[in-house]
């Protein structure tokens, strides 16, 4: 495919810095057709499902996309808000607040939310940033723990877009922040505030999105990073090993996934006499289907049915002040060395003249 010409305004002017706050993605509506589109894109990503493509294509189109969209749509409908999907609504809020926080520190950067699957897509957001004059772009995937299925897949989408550009922006990429002390402190704050509001449970369950177990043996650091986040949070809260559990949720397909699984753990705790459990999902930057439906609704029901008395779900960092402070400090560190104030019109004109003069000499 031939490369398109660059828009004229990119030839020699304002050099702005942009940030793409990228999360996983979500359907456009809680309906079966919207879910079919979203799941087809998501589950066709070879980073997400590592099964030989021809075999997987037959299973995906022959079975999964016939049955799952309607079932998932009903789950999405139970958490959908008047403004839209919680994942997108929160990510938009975070992006706006992040831009404000960085602005307060004197950094005039453009922060835009993006979705790896669905909308606003990563290429459309990169295009928009470029159109607004961004020549330096920081990609900030909203995943504290690195995994090939999430972080690396975001990188794939960015580089696929860059391959189509004549003039690529200067790009930086945040890899993970699972052990960032400020991130851990924001999680600690969130738990303490929750305990103050609703009382303290006997056990804190830290539930992460699952992955096929074989990805651990193949060298994906996701599992190790989940364990480290959990250990650091437990230490920050002064928890003894018997006062917390690390579990994995959202199992998909027939392969063995990381264990222990969240729901069976909740049931086992209730059976063994735990009356009050607190559950936090430290792998999710914002609340979404996986936390609001799978944990706060289904997890609660499973625990109470098994004899538990009180189930407290601790929300994700979302738009909390400590969470935003940690996120903006993280972005700030990754922006180091980039010019963060907008050049004046005079500076722009000077740099344009210099570029023209240089061009004339050559
Ligand atoms: C093969 C399946 C999947 C892998 C591997 C996987 C990894 C993974 N996912 C997240 C974060 C999220 N996943 C979400 C939804 C979701 N995940 C899968 C499957 C896999 N995820 C599906 C099919 C779905 C859609 C819902 C459903 O039909 O069950 C979400 C929520 C999106 C939303 O709109 O709210 C998030 C967030 C991580 C972090 C991860 C690996 C580390
Ligand atoms: Fe997922
Ligand atoms: Fe789920």
From TrEMBL:
Pathway: Porphyrin-containing compound metabolism; protoheme biosynthesis; protoheme from protoporphyrin-IX: step 1/1
Gene3D superfamilies attached to this UniProt entry: 3.40.50.1400
GO BP, sorted A to Z: heme biosynthetic process
InterPro entries in the cross-refs: Ferrochelatase, Ferrochelatase_AS, Ferrochelatase_C, Ferrochelatase_N
Pfam families: Ferrochelatase
Class of the enzyme per the UniProt entry, highest EC level: lyase
Keywords, alphabetical: Cytoplasm, Heme biosynthesis, Iron, Lyase, Metal-binding, Porphyrin biosynthesis
Domain of life per record: Bacteria
GO molecular function terms listed in the Swiss-Prot or TrEMBL record: ferrochelatase activity; metal ion binding
Localization annotation: Cytoplasm
Function summary: Catalyzes the ferrous insertion into protoporphyrin IX.
HAMAP family assigned: Ferrochelatase
Name under which the protein is recorded: Ferrochelatase
Lineage per the UniProt record: Bacteria, Pseudomonadati, Pseudomonadota, Betaproteobacteria, Neisseriales
């Amino acid at each position: 495919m031939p490369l398109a010409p660059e828009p004229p305004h990119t030839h020699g002017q304002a050099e702005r810095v942009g940030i793409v706050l990228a999360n996983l993605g979500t359907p456009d509506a809680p309906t079966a057709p919207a879910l079919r589109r979203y799941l087809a894109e998501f589950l066709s990503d070879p980073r997400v499902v590592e099964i030989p493509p021809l075999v997987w294509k037959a299973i995906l189109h022959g079975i999964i996309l016939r049955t799952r969209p309607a079932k998932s749509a009903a789950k999405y409908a139970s958490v959908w808000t008047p403004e839209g999907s919680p994942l997108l609504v929160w990510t938009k809020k975070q992006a706006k607040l992040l831009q404000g926080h960085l602005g307060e520190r004197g950094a005039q950067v453009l922060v835009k939310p993006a979705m790896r699957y669905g909308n606003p897509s990563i290429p459309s957001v990169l295009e928009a940033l470029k159109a607004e004059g961004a020549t330096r772009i920081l990609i900030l995937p909203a995943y504290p723990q690195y995994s090939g299925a999430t972080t690396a897949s975001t990188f794939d989408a960015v580089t696929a877009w860059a391959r189509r550009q004549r003039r690529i922006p200067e790009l930086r990429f945040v890899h993970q922040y699972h052990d960032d002390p400020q991130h851990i402190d924001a999680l600690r704050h969130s738990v303490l505030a929750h305990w103050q509001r609703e009382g303290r449970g006997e056990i804190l369950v830290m539930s992460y999105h699952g992955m096929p177990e074989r990805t651990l043996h193949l060298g994906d650091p996701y599992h190790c990073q989940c364990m480290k986040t959990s250990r650091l949070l437990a230490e920050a809260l002064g928890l003894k090993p018997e006062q917390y559990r690390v579990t994995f949720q959202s199992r998909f397909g027939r392969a063995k996934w990381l264990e222990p699984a969240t729901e069976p753990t909740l049931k086992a705790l209730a059976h063994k006499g735990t009356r009050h459990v607190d559950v936090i999902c430290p792998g999710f930057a914002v609340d979404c289907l996986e936390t609001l439906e799978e944990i706060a609704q289904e997890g609660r029901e499973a625990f109470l049915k098994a004899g538990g008395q009180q189930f407290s779900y601790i929300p994700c960092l979302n738009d909390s002040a400590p969470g935003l402070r940690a996120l903006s400090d993280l972005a700030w560190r990754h922006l180091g060395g980039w010019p963060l104030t907008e050049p004046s019109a005079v500076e722009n004109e000077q740099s344009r003249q210099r570029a023209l003069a240089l061009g004339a000499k050559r």
